[in-house]
Design brief:
Blueprint: E1 2-6, E2 18-24, E3 32-37, E4 42-45, E5 60-67, E6 73-80, H1 86-89, H2 106-109, H3 128-132
Antiparallel strand pairs: 1-2, 2-3, 3-4, 5-6
């Protein structure tokens, strides 16, 4: 995410007066905001939000693709608990959350949404609440 900020009240923006507010995040780090200033490309961190769910710091997240019986390619997000080792820990219970949606074509239905690199936030109805329980 980026937002353009300028110190100028009116007129054209010039490269030597541009400031951009950017957001960076990863699977294990919550979004943080940075200010990048031109022309020197100076970057200053604006926020230092702590991880809201420290017990999920090492959560494993990946996007997987699979084909439905009617040939539609679908995408799912697979979450594995921190420290999970298949050989040592054995199979896990699975919670699959699917909801019906109408699409005009198979290609539209198979579009991938989200990113495996985005921070996994937990909402009030999130299945990740079960992983946070430990």
């Amino acid at each position: 995410m980026a937002a353009l900020i300028s110190d100028q009240a009116d007129g054209d923006l010039t490269v030597d007066k541009i400031k951009i507010l950017i957001s960076k995040e990863s699977q294990n780090e919550p979004p943080q905001y940075y200010l990048r200033c031109w022309p020197d490309q100076r970057v200053t961190q604006v926020t230092k939000f702590p991880h809201p769910y420290p017990q999920l710091t090492d959560l494993k997240k990946e996007m997987i693709r699979y084909e439905r019986n009617d040939g539609v390619q679908l995408t799912a997000t697979l979450y594995l608990p921190p420290g999970y080792e298949p050989v040592r820990d054995g199979p896990l219970p699975m919670l699959m959350w699917a909801y019906p949606e109408e699409f005009k074509s198979k290609d539209n239905a198979s579009q991938m949404r989200g990113s495996q690199f985005a921070f996994a936030g937990i909402g009030s109805t999130s299945a990740l609440l079960w992983l946070a329980r430990g």
